[in-house]
User: Fold this.
Amino acid sequence: MKDFTIHIHGSGEDESFRHREGDRSLLRSALQAGVGFPYECHSGGCGSCRFELLEGEVDVLWPQAPGLTDRDRRRNRYLACQCVTKTDLRIKVSAAAEYRPKVQPRVFRARFVEALAVTHDILEFRFVGDGPAEFLPGQFALMQLPGVEGSRAYSMSNTPNPQGEWHFQIRRVPNGKGSTYLAEHLKPGDSVEVEGPYGLAYLRTDSPRDIVCVAGGSGLAPVVSIARGAAEAGMFGSRQLHFFYGGRTPRDICGEKFLRELPGYGESIHYYPVVSLPEGDTASVWKGEVGFVHELVRQTLADSIKDFEFYFAGPPPMSQALQEMLMVGHQVPFEQIHYDRFF
Assistant:
């Protein structure tokens, strides 16, 4: 296989990395080499890994990826997550230390062990890799599934461990190829290719602020990992955790079971569920909050909202509403807000 050299020119010092023929994208090669290449979603939707091609030739995996505009394409810009190289390259991008991986990503095979029900449509899939499971609480991995085109990004719900266990809480999506394969075709003993860890919404153990976790759907996984990681780091001796979970109906509500397993539940750890559609057969049994989860966050934290470290994950409309509420409505400093965009 050929090796190509990618030279980066940007706002800082120039640097370079190697991209091997057969590697899945320029972005993955850069991050695996420890380069601080900007990114978020890994799937062509956000545009964060956009770069300008100065010299060389690339193959584009998804020409119509929404992360690029027509103006970008006219200016010879590409998405690193949707490119592989055909030659040595010179590119322009503003690499930054904040994107440099804290834990070096790697590719490995993981053996499927079991799946456990979390709700009526969320399962926790448990895998064991070929070495210690090294990641930061709140990060995600990319999974390559047989017969499914492209990688799927799934967040870990457990914490780093020497046993090599990787737990993913995944919502069954109607007609979703990835979740359908996992739920219907994966058998104990089967193995899949996993790559990671990735993600910037990891637990900041050095922050002195109390923690707020907000989730909806299978966004539960990374914030459960953050709660567990904070407990393991002994953070609840001096900090509080406010954990918000939003579901459409009462049967969608989950997460409290995992928090109850942590020391400090009810004292340092507080759980706030809310549903947006309490209709149907289960409406009569729901006695809790009704509305959208970002509204409950605002009501609960009130004037102290700028004093917290925020972590959130869930459906794009939920994440967008939280971003606007925190950053625009309450001017919460950007460095206190942590989320990864998925598309």
